[in-house]
Every structure is written in C-alpha cells, then in structure tokens.
Fold this protein.
Amino acid sequence: MHANGTYRIDIALCALLGLAGFLIPLALGLQLPEVVFLAYDQYYGSDIVQSHHYMSGEEVGPAHLRTSVHPIFSFLVIPPTTILMQLGLPSTTAAAVIVALTGLATCCMVYAFGRVAGISPVDAALLTAVFLASGAFLHWWSVPETYPFGGMSVMFACLAAVIPGVSRIGWVAVAALTLSFTTTNWIAGILAAAQRLSRRDVVVVVVASFVVVAILSLWQKTFIRTAQFFFLPDAVLDEVQHLAAVKVEEHQVGFSDRVVSFVANPWVVPAPVLTESHGIRPDHLAYGPLGWIALIAIGLVAACALWNLWRTPGLRPFVVVPALFLAFQFVLHLVYGDEPFLYSAHFVPAMICVLALGFLGAGAMLCRAAAVVFVAGAGVTNVSAYLAAMAVLETVVLS
C-alpha cells in the first residue's frame, strides 16, 4: 500500500507519537495529590482509590467487587504493575507507568487508523495530535482508572474493523479484549466483527469471546478472593443497585449538561470546581477564551468529516463501527451513572475515527487549519484545567 520510504516515515512518526502518548500522561499522572488515593470520588467522580487497588493487587475493602462490570481488569493489570513494584517503583508510580503505556498503544492505533483511512502521514500525525490535546486524553490517561484501558480496547476494535485479513481467532481476541475491561464496551468488538464477518461467524465470535473471558474470570478468582463474576445474574442486580445509589448520592446533572458533557467536555475540559461533598467537577461552559476557540475549531474538523461522508459514500465503512458505538454510548450515558465526561475515554477514540475523514476531500485544508488551532488552544486549556484540578485537590482536607 505504501512505498518503503513511506513505511519508514510511518514507523518514525508512529514511534514519536507513541512516545508522546506515554510521556505526557506519565508526567501529568505524577502530579496527582495523595488525597485521590485515599478518598473516593474526588476526581470528577472517578474511583481512583478502587482502581489503584485493582492495579496493585491490594485486597483492601471492596477493592475488586467491581470486577462484575470490569471482568478481568485486575487479572490483566496486576502482573505488569507488580513487576514494576518489585523493581522498586512505588505502587502509584507503577500504576502511572502502566496507564501511560495504554496511551502509547492508543496513539499508535489512532495514527494507524488514519493511514488505513487514506490520509497522509502528516495528516495522520495531526489527527493523533488532536487526540493527544483532547481533554479526555489529558485528564483520563493520566490517572489510574479503568477508562484508559477501555478506550484502548475500543480503538483496537475500530482499527480491526477497517483492516483486511483479520482471522476468526483474531476477531475473538478483539471481542474478548473489549469485554475484558468494561462489559458495555463489548458492543464495540461485536460491531467490528459484524462489519467484516458473516452472521454465523459473528455468533461464533460472540460466544467464543464470552467463554474466553468467563474462563479467565474463573482463573482470576483463584488469585483474588474478592473478585466477582460478570456472567452471573447477581452482577446485573448489583449494577442496578449501584445505579440507584448513584441517583440518590452522587452529583447529578440534567439532560442539557449531559449532552454538553458528552459532546464538548471530552475535547475541552471546563474549569474545575470543588463541590461540598463530591470532590471536583467541571464547571459547565467555563472553557475560557482559548477553550471556546478550540471547541469551534474541533467543530469545523467535525463539519469537514461529515461533509466528506455525505459527498463520498465510499468512506462510510470507516465510520460504521465508531458511529454506532457513539450512538450506543450517548444513549447509555443519558441515563447511566454520573455525567458522561467521566466515561469519555471510552468514546473519544470512536470520535477521533470519525474526525479522520475530515482530512480528505475539498475541505482538507480547512480541516488541517482547524486541527492546528485546536491542538494549540485545547492543549493549553486542558493542561491548565488539569493542573488547576490538582491544585484544588491539594486543598481537600480528609475528615
């Protein structure tokens, strides 16, 4: 598909962008204050305390009970984190390194998706820079949480959907990976398989991936006594009870704020505000001048992508899986849990896949200019918002 020289350029750019995807979240992750590892829900409603226990293998309190919806997260992340801890790294640093590695992998896959979609190496690098500058990347790939792993698996499914020659075993691996980290992300693996396989083969992939993850969850239980089984009816009942508790106890946002949190906040994070009992939350629409410019810019990139999709039907196979996954996520997060920004690492990779097509066709120059403006404006705004959040969290006094 590419000349040898272009391959070398691709490898070099992919390596540089992957390195950025590793170093940037690692540097930010090392800024996390101690309070986020001691008190629940301090950082935008996330469960950093619990996820840190997942990664370090600790059996503190309800550490691994949420494996009912994160089936084998603990099983997959404890070994590499433990190795780093045995090499002398503190558990918080070891966790930051492992999460940053998912940033490396995801950035490489974003670049690869752009190239497979037909955009140039420079445009694929710019697309990856858009991802690197996004609020979702800077805020979620820098903390020990399940979301970066889930986002990586979704990006893997979107990429697999447009790469020819994936074997049936490969599709089982894709579907199993999306199920492994978060049960609702399994739909990404299933959609990707459905785009490339016959109905019969899709059924085989669905069943096989379920069985693989179920067997691994049984194995996980032999090492982690508090781990739960995602395939039992109790897992569904526990999640219903969890949602009921969220509606009563958690910081609630209305319909319009949920839409903004899904569409805008993953790109540009508003200024953080400290609530009375729920840690920091985004102060909706408080993006600042640079933030608003960045949002307009990313809107132009999206407009270019949609224009190309309308004008060129041949591009549509590249966005079938991302678009359907985004629709599923949007409906899900109108009713599920806290505000959608909390889960944005899951669906921003799908958004990036759609934006990739803006770099093709007559609007490509406008798309490039808007992308450059976004990277500059959003990069500054999002890093500032992250550091401001850290400063606010430093003031939290534990009772």
Remarks:
- The chain has one domain: 4-394.
- The beta strands are 272-274, 280-282.
- The chain has a mean pLDDT of 92.
- The longest strand covers residues 272-274.
